[in-house]
Design goal:
This protein is of the alpha+beta class and about 425 residues long. Helices cover about 50% and strands about 15% of the residues. A hairpin with a 4-residue loop joins strand 9 (about 395-405) and strand 10.
Length: about 425
């Protein structure tokens, strides 16, 4: 049973590492993505890291969209493991107690690390303890903000502000708006309150805003609901708590929140009828820039970081049709680059290699040559192939077979001299 939980922990840590690699690559590419994609498209791409990796089944299904000749998952998938389409296995997939296990690196190599039950237990305890503490802190702050919002005045359905600020559609879920005094920021809470037996999406507005500013902020918060940003940010926030140990995720979360805000800005500016209102919107961003980033509250969208948003709002103009099409084509290419699963990657089975390491096989070498390179390849049925290149550049081969009944490797006959350089695909250097 303890090994089952250990394998579950390793699997979750693999998820966190994979999410970090995907989101980290997007951070590196961010200057380019800022030019060729919209903010909403960047938010969707971010969900590949936040949602795609955590939902392993979806991650595996997306991996079958291998259309481009090379994908990012080709580059990060280690050559050790079992599955081609699941989350890459950097840490051991089959922990069976203390011993040496392969810690795989993206691309090909593996480092052998000795694991102990006590070490795994302590790491799990620290991970779970910090995650629970962060989750409780986040929940407490969220509840405080929601309680403060519920004290505000609920606007009637026929309030003029609602008609001016909400472009409702017949199939939209009911939306309620409260004017609240003392809020640190205006925010939305999807499925926030049950009013007269009906569940409402709620918008909480700062009462201190002028009537003109209220309408602009209301439009902004309403677009967050229409774009489903509440669910997106809550999910990302939950994964940030779960994988708190990965610093890349903290940086990615910061820019993910910025993209959500900028996506909402783009949608709001597009809805505004004229340049004068767009100018007022940019001025509103400047006036509300005194706020702070509420890291601990997953549903607040009125954070600061206004400088890039104001610059984007001032420079915004309705895109031409060809520009719009070009950005969608660019988005499709980037999407396929990140979702395409690894293809034709030969794996070095961890278990066979682990048995080889534990067996400490004495490899006998002939006296006529000295190996300059040593390579090992393994099959899932226990077959092991040894390759060696001597100082003269000549290649040699030998084979072993794992006997599960006698718990030993058999073989090690005469070395075969090869006429040409062998295919080293799926082999790893220096394991014997």
């Amino acid at each position: 049973m303890q090994w089952f939980f250990a394998n579950f922990l390793f699997a979750m840590w693999n998820v966190g590492l994979t999410a970090g690699l995907i989101l980290g690559a997007m951070l590196v590419l961010r200057p380019l993505l800022m030019k060729i994609t919209t903010a909403q498209q960047r938010a969707w791409l971010g969900m590949l890291g936040w949602y795609g990796t955590a939902a392993i089944y979806i991650f595996g299904m997306l991996g079958r969209l291998h259309i481009l000749p090379v994908t990012f998952r080709d580059l990060i998938t280690p050559r050790t493991g079992i599955s081609t389409y699941d989350v890459p296995a950097y840490l051991p997939e089959n922990y069976q107690g203390a011993g040496e296990y392969a810690v795989a690196l993206p691309g090909g190599r593996a480092v052998w690390v000795e694991f102990h039950d006590e070490m795994v237990f302590v790491l799990a305890l620290i991970w779970v303890g910090v995650a629970v503490a962060l989750g409780l802190w986040q929940t407490r702050r969220t509840n405080q903000l929601k309680a403060l919002g519920r004290q505000g005045q609920l606007l009637a359905d026929d309030a003029p502000l609602l008609f001016r600020g909400l472009s409702r559609r017949p199939d939209d879920k009911p939306v309620g708006v409260r004017l609240c005094r003392g809020l640190p920021t205006s925010f939305v809470y999807q499925n926030g309150e049950k009013i007269d037996g009906v569940r409402y999406n709620m918008i909480y507005l700062q009462e201190e805003l002028s009537p003109q500013r209220r309408e602009l902020v209301l439009r902004h918060e309403w677009n967050h609901i229409r774009l489903h940003h509440g669910w997106m940010k809550c999910w990302a926030s939950a994964l940030l708590v779960m994988f708190w140990w990965n610093p890349i995720l903290w940086v990615a979360y910061y820019f993910f929140c910025r993209d959500l805000e900028m996506a909402c800005d783009e949608k709001t500016l597009d809805d505004l009828p004229g340049p004068e209102q767009r100018k007022q919107y940019a001025q509103t961003l400047v006036e509300l820039a005194a706020g702070r980033i509420l890291w601990d509250v997953p549903l607040a969208f009125g954070e600061c970081d206004a400088v890039p948003r104001v610059k984007a709002a001032v420079a915004w103009h309705k895109p031409k049709e060809w520009v719009w099409m070009a950005k969608w084509c660019a988005f499709a290419l980037v999407f396929l680059f990140f979702v395409g699963g690894p293809r034709n990657i030969p794996y070095l089975p961890q278990e066979v290699v682990r048995y080889w390491k534990q067996a400490a096989v004495e490899v006998e070498l002939p006296g006529g040559w000295t190996p300059a390179e040593r390579w090992l390849g393994a099959e899932g049925d226990g077959r092991v192939t040894l390759l060696a290149k001597d100082t003269q550049g000549i290649w040699y081969q030998n084979d072993y077979l794992w006997d599960g009944r006698d718990k030993e490797f058999k073989g090690g006959g005469p070395w075969e001299t090869l006429d040409e350089t062998p295919d080293l695909t799926g082999f790893q250097q220096g394991l014997w």
